[in-house]
TrEMBL record:
Name of the protein in question: DNA-directed RNA polymerase III subunit RPC5 C-terminal domain-containing protein
Limits of the DNA-directed RNA polymerase III subunit RPC5 C-terminal domain: 466-718
PANTHER family, sorted: DNA-DIRECTED RNA POLYMERASE III SUBUNIT RPC5, DNA-DIRECTED RNA POLYMERASES III 80 KDA POLYPEPTIDE RNA POLYMERASE III SUBUNIT 5
Composition bias, Polar residues: 492-501
Source species: Umbra pygmaea (Eastern mudminnow)
Renumbered residue ranges of the record's region Disordered: 174-194, 491-536
Length: 718
């Protein structure tokens, strides 16, 4: 088959030879060389030669004698279509079926008919590529002791096409649609007034463009755009076919065309058997929280133990040995486990510095790893003393954010109703009996850790020993009994405080101090909501802290020049100044939270580890050029007392202070205002000195926006 544009296809007698075995340098007598064959490479049809295969047709039934009506090709896609006639006079042809198919495809009209004789008298063959890489395939012809090889451009498999059935279905759908369209004119009227939605396409991103190019619809559209090239078919015995077959022979027998086959034996062997390249097999990436035991056992023993403990966090020694490779020495495992874990109630708990390495921080609060390790070590030490601990009691001592405290407890305990957090595993007494030397060594290690924790957190072990009093046994009482016990404790506490206050007033009266109306003692609790009472809950009193701080109160000294009130340290003043210079407006509740975080980040034994009451904190704020802003919160406000105490930096020494004064005076009359009100008031008070940039800076420093209104920082009520 040939065409005017020199597109060629293979002929039936051109075949793919079996691989030839050449004995290149055999010197053995039992395998002599029988014949040498010269091989030539023909290139005349190298880019035009195709091999056709008919996989649904037996090799004994060729299409050589069947009339080929038309042929066409898409060279880029290597797609070929052949139309072949069907012998309608054959006794194997069913005439009624042929007529029915023609009627379904073409209908009763004669326009654009597929079958002109009202009968299926032809069929179409469509090709698909058998392989995309034909570099290893060629067509060869043997003549006069010479082998001429021509590379193949493509190998195509041709199968019957049933596109005529699609055409018949399309005709049927068109007829049904025409019938439905003529049933009612009302439907047409409704279609006339149907709204049309207009959409404008937005610019296509590069990622979207790549997805579109790789989509099936785009590829199909691209293939359909390539035009067909029509060919003229020539049979096997045609003179043009004989002429084209001559190009299968090498035209220049001794020329430079065959330089590709001039190879040394070593090069030829390398071409036949290229060196094997090892392909890198990428290991599947599993979830970050899944540990592969197959990969784990390839690690050194110490890394195996460390990886297991880091993932599990709490484990009995027997379970750890069960995860090791069978035959692993238990003594070696025991030596490794002591490097990465501590013994708690006979079970091994991973060390804090393994979970929180140096230079890392908390994912919740950003607290440094060193501070986290101290807090977690305290939790672990508490579980060496008792089975259950109270979360509030732990948080009051280590002074870390609630999220971090919860993480510590979840590593090694589970919550129990009315019992706090209980250690995760039962005590493993069998291990301690079997390994008394390890248990004793771990006990000595815990004593050293305990002494360090007592210095850091300023507590003694005696303060944490549970006492057999009604308050400690309240967890076992019923609800009514617990309520009665709480009322009784509150009444006794109130009576004790009243007695102490009366004694103090009598002592001051004897010393000539005026305690009448209008004059109050410095350390006397003030009523009327000016000073909030300290946290005197049973948990706070039990561990010797007030509001989360140690309750070492100052004794009033009338000769210290401050009326018996404690003097704030320079470190506390520096903290307050730095806080307000950064935020300008802070509520008392936020100051206390920031101060707790500041304490947790300090090294052990710092001078700030002393009792800091709410009153001292407020006095220090007022001493640092700050002022309390009396924000008129609404009656239905849910803000706590500490949240309603709002302080602001009043004097910074810069001219912008007067802008802040105007803003604070506005918020003393209303807890929320609009921007235009603030801008108008600033213009009224300061005139040309107030600009839009000043208003933007003022709102950024002191306020937050919510629902179109502006609030002072920390006063937003959702």
């Amino acid at each position: 088959m040939a065409a005017s544009d020199s597109v060629q296809v293979a002929f039936p007698e051109v075949f793919l030879p079996q691989p030839l075995h050449f004995n290149m340098a055999s010197g053995e007598d039992d395998d002599p060389i029988i014949q040498e064959i010269d091989v030539y490479l023909a290139k005349s049809l190298a880019d035009k030669l195709y091999l056709f295969q008919y996989p649904v047709r037996p090799s004994s039934m060729t299409y050589d004698d069947i009339s080929h009506l038309s042929a066409k090709i898409k060279p880029k896609q290597q797609k070929v279509e052949l139309e072949m006639a069907i012998n309608t006079l054959s006794p194997n042809y069913c005439r009624s079926k042929g007529e029915q198919i023609a009627l379904n495809v073409d209908g009763t009209t004669c326009e654009d008919s597929t079958y002109s004789v009202k009968m299926m008298d032809k069929q179409t063959f469509t090709s698909i590529q058998a392989t995309t890489n034909t570099s290893r395939y060629a067509a060869a012809i043997f003549r006069k002791g010479e082998l001429h090889v021509t590379p193949l451009q493509g190998i195509l498999q041709l199968r019957p096409s049933f596109s005529y059935l699609d055409k018949a279905d399309s005709k049927l759908r068109d007829r049904e649609a025409a019938n439905e369209a003529g049933d009612s004119s009302q439907d047409e009227a409704e279609e006339d007034v149907k709204a049309v939605t207009v959409r404008f396409s937005r610019p296509e991103s590069e990622q979207a463009r790549q997805r579109r190019i790789q989509s099936y619809d785009f590829l199909q559209k691209k293939h359909a755009e390539e035009p067909w090239v029509h060919l003229h078919y020539h049979s096997i015995n045609d003179g043009r076919s004989d002429h084209e077959r001559q190009y299968l022979y090498c035209q220049t027998m001794g020329g430079s065309e065959n330089t590709e086959l001039v190879k040394t034996p070593k090069e030829y062997l390398a071409m036949l058997m290229p060196p094997v390249t090892e392909e890198k097999i990428e290991k599947p990436v599993g979830p970050s929280n899944v540990l592969s035991m197959a990969q784990l056992r390839t690690l050194p023993l110490g890394d195996q133990v460390k990886t297991l403990m880091k993932n599990v966090k709490v484990m009995p020694f027997a379970n750890l040995m069960g995860l090791m490779t069978p035959g692993t020495d238990s003594t070696a495992v025991l030596r490794c486990i002591q490097q990465v874990a501590l013994l708690v109630q006979g079970n091994w708990v991973v060390k804090s510095d393994v979970l929180y390495p140096k230079n890392s921080c908390s994912p919740h609060s950003g607290v440094a790893a060193e501070v986290l390790c101290r807090g977690r070590d305290f939790v672990m030490w508490r579980f060496t003393q008792e089975r259950s601990v109270m979360r509030k009691e732990i948080a009051g001592i280590i002074k870390l954010p609630p999220e971090d405290v919860k993480d510590f407890l979840e590593h090694m305990a589970v919550p129990r109703i009315n019992r706090g957090w209980e250690f995760l595993l039962p005590s493993d007494n069998d291990f301690m009996k079997k390994h008394p030397d390890v248990a004793q060594r771990q006990q000595m290690l815990w004593l050293g850790i305990q002494s360090k924790l007592e210095k850091v957190f300023n507590f003694s072990k005696e303060d944490l020993v549970p006492k057999k009093d009604p308050s400690r046994e309240a967890v076992h009482m019923s609800g009514d009994n617990r309520l009665k016990a709480a009322h009784e404790r509150a009444r006794q506490t109130q009576s004790t405080l009243q007695t102490e206050l009366t004694a103090r007033r009598q002592g001051q009266a004897r010393d000539g101090v005026n305690t009448g109306a209008g004059v109050r003692v410095k350390d006397e609790p003030v009523s009327g909501g000016e000073e909030e009472p300290m946290d005197t809950s049973s948990a706070a009193l039990a561990n010797g802290s007030v509001n989360g701080y140690p309750s070492n109160t100052w004794s009033p000294d009338p000769h210290n020049g401050h009326g018996g009130a404690p003097v704030p340290s320079p470190e506390l003043k520096a903290f307050i100044l730095n806080t307000f210079r950064k935020q300008f407006v802070v509520s008392l509740n936020e100051v206390k939270r920031l101060f707790n975080l500041h304490l947790a980040s300090l090294p052990p034994g710092h001078s700030l580890f002393q009792s800091i009451s709410d009153r001292l904190l407020q006095d220090t704020i007022l001493m640092c050029h700050c002022k309390q802003i009396q924000v008129p919160f609404p009656a239905q406000s849910t803000a706590s007392a500490d949240e309603q105490k709002v302080f602001a930096m009043w004097e910074t020494g810069e001219t912008f202070d007067k802008h802040r004064h105007v803003l604070f005076e506005i918020f003393m009359k209303n807890y929320r205002v609009r921007r235009n009100v603030i801008q108008a008031r600033l213009t009224q008070e300061l005139g040309d000195q107030s600009t839009k940039a000043d208003v933007d800076r003022l709102l950024k420093e002191c306020c937050v926006s919510y629902g179109g209104m502006w609030y002072l920082k920390g006063t937003v009520q959702s």
